[in-house]
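Q: I have 455 residues here and want to know how they pack in 3D. Can you give me a structure?
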Amino acid sequence: MDAMGEHPARYGGRFFVDGVPDARFPEEGMSASDAYELIDQEMALDGDPARNLATFVTTWMEPEARRLVADNLHRNFIDHAEYPRTAEIERRCIRMLGDLFHAPGEVRGARCQGSSEAVMLGGLAAKWRWRKRREAAGEDTERPNLIYGRDVHVVWDKLCRYFDIEPRTVPMREGRYTFGPDDVEPLIDERTIGVVCVLGTTFTGQADDIVGIDAMLRRLRDERGLDVPIHVDAASGGFVWPFLHPDERWDFRLETVRSINVSGHKFGLVYPGVGWLVFRAPEDLPEELVFYENYLGRTDATFTLNFSTGSSMVLAQYYNFCRFGRQGYREIIEAMDRNARFLAESIGRTGRFEEVGEGPRLPLVCFRLADRDLAYDEFDLASQLAAERGWMVPAYTLPPDAEHVTVMRALVKENVAHATAELLVSDLEAAVKTLDRKGALDERERDRRRRGPGY
């Protein structure tokens, strides 16, 4: 190292003025402390997780859980021969989820990278079950279709495109952002592999009419011989409804619900990424989709789109199940909901906003500006909130045919305490006042230009 700093020992002596490694693979390395400092400083420029009300994904875990995660980052989940207890813990979690979702007996399932992988696997299972029935009846297996509303996550569109399934979708409309049996029945035929119902939509936090759809499907089975199952996309709601709305029937208590996916890294309170897929009964997972591999001295059954992946989040999920139990999860989710209702009421009392959606929902607040004739909209307000106070509160349009409706959504997880909700409302009001003033100034400027020079 020379006095000019060609090979400095400190991070700031080199990359403070030269920039960080970017397009070219670095010729030389640096000390561990310098590499840490380089990346740590860049992460400081990211958004503050404490003010991130956009993400459904968990942003906080207990110190003991974080230590468990860090201690097991080296474990490759797929190596069951080397890590048999990890594989057993996965099976325990699946059995516990089957119990939580009222499975009538033995369940099968899989740990997934997230609900996106779980959706792909659940959709494939539905397609394979449908195809097997058609083949047994001597009928063709062309042109399978899947029915879902436009309130779903984009992964369902990906499933249909990637695996050659016709999507039959139900559009939304203003004032109703979920769907029910009357929307679904006209779309069903003998090529329908399933109906997807969402428990806790990304857009408004509501649930589709799963009870009504189940009743309709049972009637069609009896009247027309159509065996159409429900897959419940409970990515967000699967760890909310059992504790916040325990009397609501949406899970395996309904006869046609054959599979459920849920994200452990959402209201399961685990860091990303872990998701779960649970089947009603072992026969609901077609054996043709299970691979038996002789790997590293042991034959393992695998049902996955991935191979190597970390074990930490499976262990973190099991930690939460053991740590909190039903009572603890109930207390946590109920506390989130209380803060969400407080936030909704406080936002409503400002007189500037109206809540969107009603009925049982996730712990969130979906709202819009009450005055539709302002010089600004929800996108402007979201930008102002971020610029003034660093809040990440997303603005977005709803799915077709309600794409003309623009809303904002504040997700209330463990990072939103009562005091945080109060601060957000105060900052919302301040941001609206700033935009009001800006709009008034812009109007005066437009008026001056209309009048011409001299005014």
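Q: Anything worth noting?
A: Residues 292 and 301 are 4 Å apart (CA to CA). The first strand starts at residue 108 and ends at 112.
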